[in-house]
Automatic annotation (TrEMBL):
Residues 25-71 form the Putative Flp pilus-assembly TadG-like N-terminal domain. The chain crosses the membrane at residues 27-48. This is Putative Flp pilus-assembly TadE/G-like protein. Keywords: Membrane, Transmembrane, Transmembrane helix. The keyword Transmembrane helix applies.
Length: 168
């Protein structure tokens, strides 16, 4: 070592090329903490994105089922009389539910979907479809060694209204 010295942190002089004692490993711990924080943040965002995408898929499925169920007109009741085009074609709870179950049965993605109890028609002109599914949290379920089977229940409701205009 040469005899050159530079001022230290507390005003003492420290030989050039040496660090003050007690600072070893501080940066490593800081970097490690930031890496752990970034990984946890990434996992949370990935899990939330997976659940959000599954909800959007279920909502699109409910929209399609509601549109299909709105076409499920009770033709027998319509032709029996008592309703005209000004009131709209009649829908029944059973007809809407049957149309939704039939629609879900034709789709491969409809196996894990449950038709909700409020599926039906509140006014005879609106098809209301409630669908529910259980979504496993992708990151927590994929971690090896964890016996954690975390899942989120998602319930969506969609409505489609039948509206006919008289010809003429």
């Amino acid at each position: 070592m040469t005899g050159r010295r530079q001022p230290g942190v507390s005003g003492t002089t420290v030989p050039v090329g040496r660090r003050p004692a007690g600072d070893d490993g501080q940066v490593t711990l800081l970097v490690l903490g930031y890496v752990v924080l970034a990984v946890v943040l990434l996992l949370v965002v990935a899990t939330a994105s997976g659940v959000h995408l599954e909800r959007k898929r279920l909502l699109a499925l409910a929209d399609a089922a509601a549109s299909d169920a709105a076409d499920a007109v009770d033709l027998e009741g319509y032709y029996r009389g008592g309703t005209g085009l000004e009131q709209g074609p009649p829908l029944t709870d059973a007809g809407v539910r049957a149309a939704v179950v039939d629609h879900l049965g034709r789709l491969p993605a409809g196996d894990d979907v449950v038709v909700g109890a409020s599926t039906g028609t509140p006014d005879g002109r609106t098809a209301e479809v409630e669908l529910a599914t259980r979504v496993p949290l992708p990151v927590l379920s994929a971690l090896p060694g964890l016996r954690l089977r975390a899942a989120v229940d998602i319930v969506v409701t969609s409505r489609a209204r039948v509206a006919l205009a008289p010809a003429g």
